[in-house]
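Residues determine shape. Take a concrete instance:
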Amino acid sequence: MDDHTIKQEQEFLALLQKALRQAKENGGRISRDDIRELFSSFSLDEDQMGQIEAYLKAHKMAVGSAAGNGDDTLAKEEREFLEYYMESLKEIPKLSDQVMDAVRISAMAGERSAQRELTEQMLDKVVDIARLYSGQGISIEELIGTGNEALVTGVKLLGHLDSPREVDGELARRVMDSMEDLIAVTMENNTRDREMEDLVNLVADKAKELSQILGRKVTPQELADEGDVTLDQIREALRLTGDGIESLDS
């Protein structure tokens, strides 16, 4: 490996650390535009961008698709909800940095009123994080709701922290984890739904083909004997449709 290659690798690793610091300072999130700007000297391809995103996500940082708030990618109903919700958050008075430090310390000590105050002050951060996770099959309202639940729980679990400076990052990580879990569960459910739909369609199509050949409805065993679908698959398709496959005599 020549000196130039070594120098490039060292620069890349240094920029990775810089991206991580920037994300931490920004409440645990960074946009892809910011990443590209940081790594502008490398002209990142998709593989390299993927490696950087994987590194940041491994450190519980959220990576967004745009440098702005991303609202232009939301559906009309979501934008309307977000506009109304953000307007309501403006009614919450913002505390000074000095007061916020006192609130964090009191919340860490278990003081309920401080925990409620901290929750209110962090609600807009939940919105920022939700924007980063939008566009993945979950509405912005659901993301915010899930993040708020994690926030309410998280403010009661700060006693293990060493410093109030760790509070915001800890809460942001909890919010991000909750949204990632919601997205993962939803994707898993969607995959399962698609698999069930594909199975029903396959069985229905094969049953229709055989029914047209025989000129009558077919039994599950007759269809299974054709070898394209198993008897268990046929029974499962019948269960899912409530025995509603037209060409099958259940």
